[in-house]
## 1
Amino acid sequence: MTSTLVIVRHGESVWNAKNLFTGWVDVDLSAKGEAEAKNAGALIKKEGLFFDACHTSLLTRAVRTANLALEVAGQLWLPVNRTWRLNERHYGDLQGKDKVQMVQQFGAEQVKLWRRSYDVPPPAVPVTHEYHPANDRRYHLEAPDALPSSECLKDVVARVLPWWFDSAVPQLRAGKTVLVVAHGNSLRALIKHLEHISDADITELNVPTGMPRMYRFNEKLEFAEAPKYLDEAAAKAGADAVKKQTG
């Protein structure tokens, strides 16, 4: 018995287009992002993939990417689970700020630490800040101490893995085909776990927007074949573009 996992980073958001740190701020897709989401659906359809379940974050850009991709793939009816554990990394006080301007203010090495390191979070926001999740209705049922004011990738791994083991793994062990539409850092956290990437090497991993990546597993949840993007050339170009966002 084999199972299949497909992961997709949401299409370009309006803040991606402006080169702003976004994090948990709920911004929508840009026109380009909508096109990327539809292209993801076309790639899924071309590959002949039919899903049994879908998981997204609680953020609009991931929700809409999933909807647009599934519509093109002819699977808009698919049951969907939404969870904050798949949200983007909380960028703390960097949220809403220009990436290049932050490099000019703090230096390239410091911003790279905040943006790409495994265990260095950006400066936190207070609980009274407009971008703290305690002030967002969608998290009002969560325990206050579960809501971040800033996160490093290590923190994201710690919140993504409980979802992975509790929700995704049972579906995959049952032989299901699962779609996950999330964000650059929540997917970096998942890829780090799946592909056994070291804390040092994960700093160089960039996840392109709107590019489905496929994993096939055997009954032991070992890789039945090498993971791959459904469009390797476009995925490489997209990852290179992410890498250049801070100049």
## 2
Amino acid sequence: MPGDEYQPHPVFNATRAITIYAPAERIWPWLVQIGYRRAGWYGYDWIDNDGVPSSERILPQWQALKSGDALPIWRGIDFRVAQAEPNRSLVFTSFEGHDSMTLCLYPVSPGETRLAWRIRLAPYRWASPVVFTQMFADLADFISVRQSLEGIRRRAEGRSSHTRHLYLELFLWIAMFFGFLASLAVLTFGRTLIKPLLVAILAGLATVVCVLLRPPLFVDFAAFVAILLALSLSLHRKEKKTPR
């Protein structure tokens, strides 16, 4: 893809794509205005845009994006536009040139387009405590980019917003993941093996299935409750009766 040449040996290399039922010409204006405190990232605004809602309309002031322009991706962090080919591809890179982000439009039919989003990052400072923040961001990247892709699709297709439970869903996923971590801690430091192992498997599978399939919210809640109950049962010990 365009932009791969900026980081030929990435540590983090992720490509996501989504099918949008709109021509590339209708999608492009949503891409060129993307960015922190611009039109937003069309995803979790309270997390990635300081609570400012992503735009629901095309903003003329952000449509003239060109190579060399600075593009803020987060508070105090700017990328620069390395390539901008209208209706085809948009490439951002860090100012050091080590990291790249590419959005490409691939026509499938006159009214159908595939939008691909690629991120390539390197090098990592493994000896620095900052690397843990980087790895957490990489872990969360799948969820955040997927939501951004869905936000772009909804806008380009002209559909209304239905994100009322978006953050509750995200909270339940995070809670399930911490339930999984807790079950691993019990498995590591506990005195028994079978129960904590089963709970860890349950919690891990439930988290992955809910994040990947995005079932109705009540399913997420039921999975979270099931993990809590299983975790409490794994911690429960039968008390021995002492004879009088």
